[in-house]
Amino acid sequence: MAAKIRAITLDLDNTLWDVFPTLRKAEQNSHRFLSEHFPRVAERFSADDISALRDRIYSNYLELQHDMTGIRRRLYVEMLKECDYDPVNAEDLLNRFLVDRNKVELYPDALPALKRLANSYPLISLSDGNANLSSIGIRDFFVGCVYSADTGYAKPHCAGFEKACEIAGVEPGEIVHVGDNPIADVDGARRAGFQTMWIQRNEEIWTEDFEPDYSVKTMLEAVEILC
Q1: At a CB cut-off of 8 Å and minimum separation 6, what does 200 contact?
Q2: Residue pair 59/75 in contact by the 8 Å Cβ criterion
Q3: Is 218:109 a contact under the CB 8 Å cutoff?
Q4: pLDDT tens for each residue of 83-131
Q5: CA-CA distances (angstroms) from residue 182 to 126, 162, 186, 191, 198?
Q6: Quick check: 149 and 142 in contact, CB under 8 A?
Q7: 3-state SS string over 7-21?
Q8: pLDDT tens-digit series, residues 41-68
C-alpha cells in the first residue's frame, strides 16, 4: 500500500499552463526590440535563426543545460558580439524577455485546483524552467520553489526531488509529484521514491515501459484523487 500523501510537488510549464504560446510571443517581442535598438542583430538573425541558435547553445554548453536563464543570456551575448554590439546589453535583453516569458495564461483548471490543494497540502514547485511564480501571481500557494538552475541538475536527476523533500520535511514516498513529462517528471519522481501523477494535457499517448501511479487530464481531476 502506498504511503499517505503529505506533500505535493508540481511541475510548471505545460502542467499549469501551456508554455509554448508564451515563449513564441516573448521571442517575437524580443526580436521586435532588437529590430528597433540593435538592427544589425535583427538583420543577421531571424526569429527562427534565434531559436536554432538557442538549441545549439543548449547542445554545446553542457554546463548550462540545467539553466534556461543562463542559456538565454548566452544567446543574447553571442548575437550581440557577432554583430559588433557591446555584450553588456545582454542583461537588459534578458530581463525584457523574462517579463514576457512570465505572462502565462493558466489552464482554466489550474487556479481553482491550486486553491484547493494548497488548503490540504504543502505545495512545492519543481521546474527546469525559469517561470517566476511571484510575477505570475501564484507564489502564495507554494511553500517552496525548486529550480534546476539552483540545484545544478535538470530533471530527471534526483537533486531537485531531494531538495523538495528537505523543504517539505517528509519522506520521498509521502510526496506525489504531478507533471506532464513522462521522463523528466514521472520517471524522475519514481526513481527518487516519490509517488507519481502524470497529467495528460494534449492527448499524448503513454508509451513508456513503466506506469505512473495516477493519470489525469486536468488538475481538477488531481484534486478529486488527492482531496
Answers
A1: 180, 206, 215, 216, 217
A2: no
A3: yes
A4: 999 999 999 999 999 999 999 999 999 999 999 999 999 999 999 999 9
A5: 15, 19, 5, 12, 7
A6: no
A7: EEEECCECCCECHHH
A8: 999 999 889 989 999 999 999 899 999 9
Q: Whole-angstrom Cα distance, residue 185 to residue 212?
A: 10
What are the angstrom distances between the C-alpha of 16 and each of 88, 217, 223?
A: 34, 12, 13
What is the chain written as a DSSP string? -PPPP-EEEE--BTTTB-HHHHHHHHHHHHHHHHHHH-HHHHHH--HHHHHHHHHHHHHH-GGGTT-HHHHHHHHHHHHHHHTT--GGGHHHHHHHHHHHHT---B-TTHHHHHHHHHHHS-EEEEESS---HHHHT-GGG-SEEEEHHHHS--TTSSHHHHHHHHHHTS-GGGEEEEES-IIIIIIHHHHTT-EEEEE-SS-----SSS--SEEESSHHHHHHHH-
Strands in 195-199's sheet, in edge-to-edge order, are 144-147, 123-127, 7-10, 175-179, 195-199, 214-216
* pTM flag (> 0.90): yes
What end-to-end distance do the CA atoms of the chain give, in Å? 18
